[in-house]
Amino acid sequence: MIDKDSLILDLTRRDPRYRPEAYQFLFEALDVTIQLRGGVRRHVSGPEIMEGVRRLALEQFGYLARSVFQHWGVTRTDDFGEIVFNLIKADLLQKTADDRKEDFFGLFDFAEAFDDAFGQALSALEL
Fold this sequence. Notes:
This protein is an all-alpha fold. 64% of the residues lie in helices and 0% in strands. It has six helices and no strands.
């Protein structure tokens, strides 16, 4: 049986740009992504994964989402593409022939997606 945590720690030793928490969060975000699609397990695209990341980050961390990600070494959607492809190399995720790191590049700005979105949610509650 594969020990996912050990493989993730090994990944972070080989590629220290990202903390282990970023990898664990990505797996949680994949679960959210699948739930958003009605629980159907099938291939998910880079933009779909990033929507799951965005929603889960706002739910778990609120206004601190961007700061948490920065602490983990993640400052843009491109970083999540790197994490996904590190997980693919470690055989913890699978890809199709069409999947590329570039699928994650520049999908949204973290300040807008996290700071502004959280501020808008708070404003809506005050109404």
